[in-house]
Amino acid sequence: MGKAGVERLLVANRGEIARRIFRTARRLGIESVAVYSDADEQAAHVSEADYAVRIGPARALDSYLNVDAILQAAKTSGADAVHPGYGFLSENSVFARACATSKLNFVGPPVDAIEKMGSKAAARQLMSDGGVPVIPGYHGEDQTDERLFAEAKSIGFPVLIKPVMGGGGKGMYIVYDENHLGEALQASRGVASSAFGDSRLLLEKFIAQSRHVEVQIFGDKHGNHVHLWERDCSVQRRHQKIIEEAPAPDLGDALRSKFGHAAVAAAKQVKYENAGTVEFIMDVSDGKREFYFLEMNTRLQVEHPVTEEITGQDLVEWQLRVARGERLPITDQAQVPCLGSAIEARIYAESPEEGFLPQAGTVRRFRFPGDPDHVRVDSGIREGDSVGVFYDPMVAKVIATGDSRGEAITRLRNTLRGSQVLGIKTNCNFVSKILSEEEFVAGTHDTSILEKKMENLLKSSDQESRPPGALLAAALTRRLVLLEHYKQISGHNAAFKSNPGFALFELPRTRVRIDGKELVVEETSEKAFQVRDGDDVIGSVVVHSWRSVGSDEFELDVSVEGVRLKWHTVQAGSEVGVYSFEKAGQLFRVDPEEEEEEELDYEDGTESSIKAPLPGLIKAVMVQVGDLVEKDDVLVNLEAMKMAHSLKSPHAGVVKHLHAAEGEIVAFGKALVSVQK
């Protein structure tokens, strides 16, 4: 690359973004340094770097947010530059200034730009001064309730309350009338003070029907600024993006040009350098198409891959070149390409059907089918890795491209439907259903799409929505796995390998456990099987052929109720996955060790065991042995993946046993408290 200043790069981050940055650094001949907490000692990003330095315990405050530890890691490893990634310290001006003081090249914008854009009030005033449209609101220093009430009335309800130094939707409240304003102000101040150390609030006009459109901008040290087109991020849940795409649908050339000009004006207003994103909210109510400045993110965004795909540019390379003092690779706006369409889905370790409860565990299988020329997977984990409880639950980003938006949607939907993830639950099926929603396909959706469609999107958890034969396929797979293991133990493995039918058809009856039920798989006639739950027949299946394609992995050609079906099945750990091209994958729990024993009969009553719904840290035990509790009393506060979970008593009674203590890290399913009726 020609200039000194980025020869050994420390990435002050983890997971997917660290791996992403390492790939570009490796291609450019730059040495890489990983940092890791105790929880990430075996993580993928650690093994892929040239050097790795431990920075502290698992808790983010003690490691990835520990400025002194990261600066010491840079000194120890001999790094001359630091890339912050996204999240953690990426928009922390104190960290950026500390890097400069330590003679480290910070791969990001100047400290001054981070500070100005970090304050929503200051950013709004700067944008207004620069001619960038801003939403009507109040950003003043007078924070008395009297002044805020008066300003809210002047703006007109509904209004949106935000912490001045906030982000990620924390502390934001929508208030529809004056009667609820006082309560919302108190709640928002509390969040602002605890989360950001600054209790100041701002008020904005709430736009009921809107789209979230953002523009990727870049600047260099020579005064050049360009935009790399826009992204639509309107599919959000609780202000967190789920699906992002570029270019934004249904804008038109004239409006697209206005977005780009406004974003570049914003960048010039703060003399911006390196990668940044200018976020806008577009009012689409009553046919309007007016947009307003929302905020500027002074870092590389999670969703940057969709911009890379439509422009053919490596944005991390652009960042590194700018950090070295080079000019932007493209300085003429007219030369920035925009080809085809790209859509990204964020894959989270969570269970949508259980209130989006974060998941943790060992990833037994992690595969996404698709043409590598059109489907890109950026992930922080590999098969065999553990997803823990300390960090954000995003495990991957899946990006699909196409010559048209419709083509990209189809590719992404098919990839998510065919995804094979075992060991943890994910939102793959949930997102694939969003991609099929009529409004989304038409490109006419707004930020309310999930709120309006949530009930329908969550129906995928219903048993009746499972494809025909999926449970039968899971039962047959479990039978094959059990028999295959039996053959290996008993010395008949050669017969199994040379004559696969030997394992499937040799024994007339096999008992298996699927989703907590003891099922019987029995042969009823040649190549025909019946699956029973007690005396109830669940279904019958004719096996035309099958073959082993890996360890505990099979391809089944069957008929169910006269319909020919082809299934790809695999057992990994305590789960069986059943997959087909036409339908989303189905997961079944098969481990008999997982039986839940919620109620134990005693001579004087019934005792219930309250168990951990996911691995986590016990923040507080609210009761002691002998305490009397009522139904829904909070017994334990559990923290997992940056979320608090209050575990409540299922009934009134007396606390008989405590099985966990404050500060203890507990596994999924561990009994925590026993309450006797």
From TrEMBL:
Its cofactor is biotin. SUPFAM superfamilies: Glutathione synthetase ATP-binding domain-like, PreATP-grasp domain, Rudiment single hybrid motif, Single hybrid motif. Residues 601-676 form the Lipoyl-binding domain. Residues 124-324 form the ATP-grasp domain. CDD domains: biotinyl_domain (cd06850). PROSITE patterns: ATP_GRASP (PS50975), BC (PS50979), BIOTIN (PS00188), BIOTINYL_LIPOYL (PS50968), CPSASE_2 (PS00867). It holds the Pfam family CPSase_L_D2. This is Uncharacterized protein. It comes from Rhodosorus marinus.
